[in-house]
Amino acid sequence: MTPAKNRSFLFLAAFTVLTAASGAAKAGDVAELDILGFSQDGGIFAFEEFGVQDGSGFPYANRYYVDTATDSYVQGTPIRVRIDDEAAGLQAARDKAREQGEAIVKQSELAANRGYTAGSNAVTELSADPLRMAVNPRPVFPAIDKPLEFRLEILPFGEAEQCHGMGEASGFRLLRIDATDGGMTQLVHEDKSVPQSRGCPTGYSIGAIQTFSSQGSPSHYAVLIAVRKVGFEGPDHRWMAVTGKF
User: Fold this and answer.
1) Cα distances (angstroms) measured from residue 13 to each of 4, 24, 95
2) pLDDT tens track of the chain, all 246 residues?
């Protein structure tokens, strides 16, 4: 290789490395969702989000236990575990969170009453409507249940203290549409402000609908919502749930 060609090759190689590094630096962290299930009577819904933090490289696992009657967290939850060691394995964080969760609802009970994932869209899905999901609540054909349909509306709240000048915070409104009753709309959830626990959320999408039915108790649903927020190296994604009965 001639000196001129050698210099060109080295420049191209260096540019490629820098470009790749720059792209990696802008990558946020997307928490993986694991739907754990319901308590036996449907009174509690639980799910886990886990991953590796962008920036720090620390593994984390968060478990959420929601009282389905009040759509609020069970006392003593969420359970949040982060291991401040880049060399620590992700499974170690998940095991620690699971151990703490046993005091709330046994893992075996959740697994036995997981319910049914009636609809699901990954945050990487490009062809689906991120603000609307309509499902048959159970895999029964012909259907014996009325369809469940939810629509998400983004609510701009402008600049917020937790955004630190890096964006404008958004909340959301969740509506349930009853297409079989003349399109009646029911308000399920509406943010009046953005909780500090969400960080600086800039967008939302419907990620899944989980349903649960058991003999002698009402049928329950949980709408899993992906929260896109400002992260250290790019947009992060976390999860929350809105629960109710049908």
Assistant:
1) 14, 17, 42
2) 444 444 444 433 443 433 344 444 457 899 999 999 999 999 999 999 999 999 899 999 999 999 999 999 999 999 999 999 999 999 999 999 999 999 999 999 999 999 999 999 999 999 999 999 999 999 999 999 999 999 999 999 998 889 988 889 999 999 999 977 677 899 999 999 999 999 999 999 999 999 999 887 789 999 999 999 999 888 999 999 999 999
Do residues 166 and 200 lie in contact, with contact meaning Cβ atoms separated by under 8 Å?
Answer: yes
Q: What is the dihedral of CA 45, 50, 53, 59, to 10 degrees?
A: 130
Q: Could you tell me if 35 and 66 are in contact, meaning their C-beta atoms sit under 8 angstroms apart?
A: no
Query: Torsions phi, psi of 11, nearest 5?
Result: -65, -45
Q: What is the DSSP letter of 26?
A: T
One-letter identity of residue 132: R
Domain boundaries, the chain: 29-245
Cβ atoms of 194 and 219 within 8 Å: the answer is no
Q: Hey, what are 191's tokens?
A: 């943010």
